[in-house]
Design a protein that fits this description.
Number of domains of chain A: 1
CATH superfamily of the largest domain in chain B: P-loop containing nucleotide triphosphate hydrolases
Number of helices of chain A: 8
Order of helices and strands of chain B: EEEHEEHEHHHEHEHEEHEHEEHEH
Helix content of chain A: over 70%
Distance between the termini of chain B: 36 Å
Order of helices and strands of chain A: HHHHHHHH
Largest interface: A-B, 28 and 32 residues
Structural class of chain B: alpha/beta
Number of strands of chain B: 14
Oligomer: heterodimer
Strand content of chain B: 25-35%
Radius of gyration of chain A: 19 Å
CATH architecture of the largest domain in chain B: 3-Layer(aba) Sandwich
Radius of gyration of chain B: 21 Å
Distance between the termini of chain A: 23 Å
CATH class of the largest domain in chain B: Alpha Beta
Largest sheet of chain B: 6 strands, mixed
CATH topology of the largest domain in chain B: Rossmann fold
Number of domains of chain B: 2
Strand order of the largest sheet of chain B: 6-7-8-3-9-10
Shape of chain A: globular
Number of strands of chain A: 0
Structural class of chain A: mainly alpha
């Protein structure tokens, strides 16, 4: 476990280069949402999204210096490397999410100077978090399969494909189960987050397994 | 003497290149130089030894343990320097210590910073701002700081000035002083290996041409320079290969003394490792 910790520390230390950019993005988002009086549809969505993107960019750092090859000379397995990458991306997205929640609550309380709807902030944040995780479920194996360069391009098509896939699944579900759109939306409103969270956890694990398989066969 | 590294029939096929049945042993207290032209298979051999690439066939034993079954245990005791890869350029020496102390069980922080001081490496400068020599010294520092028993270095002196190269060669020689450790170092700068290597393994086109002691190569091998007429009198079995130059023939022979006696030739030039390599690759038989 210590070795995995070492690899995660490596990725976090690389973040030093993002310090100024991250602070700039944070201030920019905070200001724009504050002025537009649109805190909840901005901060809990874009800050975690940026955090997730920064997490995925760790593939670029390794690609530039071919670090994967060097790390394989350490007493770490390929499985350890994939595990550490998943954990790092997960942690950084969580950090982004926590930051977004705190910032949303602070900005809302300044703006409204009344009670802040914490449940609403948390629901939006959890929804966004699950959405980002769905992206990562596909993005990470793509990065392992095609590398950081090609992966970035393929990833864009994947986002569109995921959107189609999710709508396809939803439409098929409505058709097969012969429930109306209103009923479906009601179910989603009530149980959507729980369903999404459970599906995410399962798919994230599956994505990890796929990445291990891809990386085990990859010539670095 | 006990083998630290045993490579047996290592094979790996790529499109357009094949590593064929590479075998050699490295003993304790020895430095082995792996030589060969660019693309000969030196780096592929090193990567296959370290299990970075999956070999198609062959067997690797390090510290008398099978590599594939004991990879993590073995790698705790190996220090590696790769020519073309390292940690991110945006880390500094202090960051690297933070990472590496979690990676190796026997990472010696004090030793690491002792080397950093000794090599005059800036602690808080990011690697991107290091010169090539400084970067290589940092790579070697990392490779040495968990007290490995075997050092494997791929082209550690390429692109460095003579002073930096010399410093690195000194480090390698010091490393094997206790006769318990060994070094496998690949280089196409053969003069470096002439100074430090006890054994030379020559690889060309994915095949091992020979593994010989440096002294055997320097003391016995020779180059005979002669005219076309003189060359015709020499039996093919008495030389390894020859190279036809504009005005003369250069013949690579394996035993200077025997050749002198047989052909009554007084002047036979010493063959450097570079000469041997060039005539083997470019020469004819």
């Amino acid at each position: 476990m210590n070795r995995i910790k070492g690899l995660i520390i490596k990725d976090f230390l690389n973040l030093k280069t993002y310090r100024v950019t991250a602070l700039f993005i944070l201030i920019l988002f905070a200001t724009v949402s504050f002025i537009n009086d649109d805190i909840l549809s901005f901060i809990p969505i874009f800050i975690p999204l940026c955090a997730g993107m920064i997490g995925i960019s760790s593939f670029n750092y390794d690609n530039i210096t071919k670090s994967d090859r060097y790390i394989l000379t350490f007493p770490v397995s390929r499985k350890d490397m994939v595990k550490s990458r998943y954990l790092y991306i997960f942690f950084i997205t969580v950090i982004g999410e926590v930051l977004a929640v705190l910032l949303s609550i602070i900005l809302q309380s300044i703006k409204q100077q009344s009670l802040v709807n914490v449940i609403e902030v948390l629901s939006i944040s959890l929804g966004t978090f699950c959405g980002i995780m769905i992206l990562q479920i596909f993005e990470i194996p793509i990065m392992y399969k095609f590398g950081a360069e090609k992966g970035r391009i393929i990833q864009m098509f994947t986002i569109v494909a995921i959107a189609f896939l999710i709508s396809g699944v939803a439409i098929s579900f409505i058709k097969i189960s012969s429930i109306s759109l209103e009923e479906f939306l009601y179910i989603m409103q009530k149980y959507g987050l729980i369903i999404l969270t459970l599906v995410d956890i399962f798919l994230y694990f599956l994505s990890y397994k796929v990445s291990v398989k891809i990386f085990s066969k990859k010539e670095v | 003497m006990q083998n630290i590294l045993e490579v047996k029939n290592l094979s790996k096929k790529y499109k357009g290149f094949e590593l064929k049945n590479v075998s050699f042993n490295l003993q304790k207290g020895m430095i082995m130089g792996l030589i060969g032209e660019n693309g000969a298979g030196k780096t592929t051999t090193i990567k296959a030894i370290l299990n970075i690439i999956n070999s198609d066939d062959g067997n690797i034993k390090i510290f008398n343990l099978e590599m594939k079954e004991n990879e993590k245990q073995i790698k705790e005791d190996i220090g590696v320097v790769l020519d073309d890869s390292f940690l991110s350029d945006y880390l500094n020496a202090i960051d690297i210590n933070k990472v590496m102390k979690n990676i190796y069980q026997r990472w010696d922080e004090n030793l690491y910073f002792k080397y950093i001081e000794e090599f005059k490496l800036p602690k808080d400068k990011i690697i991107k701002e290091y010169s090539s020599g400084m970067k290589m010294k940092l790579k070697i520092t990392v490779a040495l700081s968990h007290n490995p028993k075997l050092l494997i270095l791929d082209e550690p002196t390429s692109g460095l000035d003579p002073i930096a190269r010399n410093e690195i060669l000194d480090i390698l020689q010091e490393f094997i002083q206790d006769e318990e450790k060994a070094v496998l170092v690949s280089s196409h700068i053969t003069s470096d290996l002439e100074h430090i290597a006890d054994y030379i393994t020559f690889i060309s086109n994915g095949k091992i041409i020979f593994t010989k002691t440096r002294d055997e190569l320097i003391d016995n091998y020779g180059i005979v320079k002669c005219s076309k007429e003189e060359f015709k009198k020499i039996k093919p079995k008495d030389f390894i290969k020859y190279k036809k130059n504009k005005y003369e023939y250069e013949i690579l022979i394996e035993n200077k003394n025997e050749f002198k006696k047989k052909y009554k030739i007084d002047v036979i030039d010493k063959a450097t490792i570079e000469d041997i390599m060039i005539i083997y690759i470019k020469g004819e038989k």
